[in-house]
Structures are given as C-alpha cells and as structure tokens.
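Hi everyone,

Forwarding the result from last night's run.
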Amino acid sequence: MRVLIHAPWPAEYTAELAAALGARDDIERLCLVVRRDFAYAEAAGCAVARCYPAARIKRGRLQKLTAHAVALARTAACIWRERPDVLHVQALHQPLLDWPLLVIARLRGARLVWTAHNSLPHESGRFDAALFRRIYRHVDAVIAHTRFTADTLVRELDVRNAKVHVIAHGPLTLGAAPAPARDQARRALGIADDTFMLLLFGRLRPYKGLDLLLAALDRLQDPYMHLVVAGEDAFGDATGQLQGRDDVSADLRRVDDETTARYFAAADLVVLPYRRIDQSGVLMLALTYRSAVLASDIGGLAESIDNERTGFLLDPVDAETLAARLADIKSRPDALADVRRQIAADEDGQRGWPTLAERTADVYRSVISRGGADSNPDQSRRP
C-alpha cells in the first residue's frame, strides 16, 4: 500500500505511528505532509514533505493567508505526485479552506481515512458541527481513540457506526526527554521531599478545571500539598487565578522537553480535573513518564485509566469530591507505587505502537477493498 499521512499536527503522534507503519511489509511507500519545523523526520523513518509553515512564527494576516495558500498548493502537488492508495488525515490546518485537498486525493484515486483526535475542535465555532458532518460523510473511515469519541461521532455528528474504528492512542516517547531521578528533579524545582506535589500540565483552557483544583486546595488547607501549574495560559485566565497563592508554583509558558521531564519526575500525582474532553495528550504524556494520574471520569479518560490499577478517576467532577480524592490518594503511597508499576507493565501490550499500526493498516486494507466511501454514492459529494 502507498500511504500519505497529512499531519500539520500532531507531530509526535504522527511520527510514532509512521515509524511503526514503516516497519510493516505491507506498506510499500509512506510519506508525511508536515510543518517546516517538524522535528521527528529521522525517527519517522519515511519520506517527509514539509508543506506547511513552521508554527509559532508571528505573521500579519496577509502573510498568514499567503503562506497558507502556498502550503495548500504544495500539499495538492504532493498528493498528485505521490498518488497514494490511502490519504490518512490527522488534521486539516484550516478545515473550512482545506477540504479541497480531500477532493484532489479522491480524484487521484485515494481512499480517505480521518483520525478524529477529538470529535470537534476544542473551541468549536458555530459552523464547525455542520462542516465536520460534511467532512465525515466524505471520508471512507474514521479512526477514534476511544469508544466515547466513537459514540459522539455516531450520535451527534451522524457518522455511520460501520465507518468508525476505535484504535487507542499510543505512548508518546519521541519528544520525551529522559526523566531525572525524583530527588534531583525536586531539588531543581525547590520542592521539599516531604511535599505531596500535584502537577497540572499543558495549555491552560477553561475546561481543564484549574479553578476546581484551586478550590479543592482551599478546602484542604494542607501545608504539605503543593500544586505546580505548567503550560501556556491560552486565554489569560490563569494568571489572575494564581496571583498571591503560596501553595501554587506557576510556569505559564510553552515548556521545553527537559523541563517537562523534570516536572513529571518530581510530581506525586498528575491531576486532570477536566470538565469535558474526548482524549488527552497530557494523559498520554503522563503515561509515557509512568506518572500516577487523577482524571475526571468523563469522555475517553475513563477508557484510558483502569481506576485504582493504572490511575485514579474523579466522579463527580466538583471541588468537594476532588479535595476528598486528593487527601485519600496522598494517604496511600503504596497505591501510587502500584499504579506506576502497572503502567510500566501495560506499556508494551495493547497500547504498543506495533499493535496500533497493525490495526491502522487493517483500516487501510478495508477501505481499499470496499472501493471507497463505503460504496455509497452520497459519500462521494464534496464536504
């Protein structure tokens, strides 16, 4: 099979998947369409087309539009040149503008596979549901990482059940710097050995529940519990919430790999008190570092954590329950150690990349054998 993976993001997930797919005998040709600053080309071990501009470069509006137009032209040319059997879309840079790429791939004879990392974008606009319904109708198969996401696709976005395939999210190891020893990491962060350190990591958005976590700390008033908040303040809300607190340390920026490893090595518990989510990249990163996690019992989080075995679940998601859960987990260091050991034991099993690549290749073969769009004429319409 000739496969083209369109992935302006997520970079690390795409590289991990590509490396595992490329090791398979049934993949004749594999090429990735990525950003110019894609850092994992060597690890991916396949052809790479750097069609999209690098992230986080400041540009004016006209410059952004021009750069995007150039990226679309390069991507279209790549699709035409590669003539893939399967175009596997991890994301579209600007879905409203980029859907013609799907039509071009279809005209070139490709089957279309879409990975729904979330059923809809995190901050969905008023037209997103209608747009993604059309996109999902146009593709031949949709991969979801959790049954929750799959059910949401079927129930809310009218995706036919037969089109959806659930394939778990694998561990993210390529960008994970080696973790230092716990005591070394704590010395670097100024965290005492007898402090129970909580970590809220990742880009801060309102749905991630920082306010709930702060309210839980206010209820506990535990001088031996300390929260570290690390990640970009996406909407500017966190700075005010954290001001003047002695029980919280804040690092409100995009955290580099080495510092990320230090935070996870130092933490006793990673806390994800999310109000809504399909799947969490932070959870996958925490599992990569074999960190114990307390996460809301919602969305795909509950499918990724076996409560009290590979992590801890929070239900209901409110400050009072969160405070009680934190106090309980802190009182059971043996349970924390058991969770970390079980995460390590599970790492190479059903969530290992060779297994996930095999299941992904099965999806490719199924759409090729069916002849595209589930042989439904309505599916051939543009999104």
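DSSP finds 16 helices and 13 strands in the chain.

Cheers,
N.
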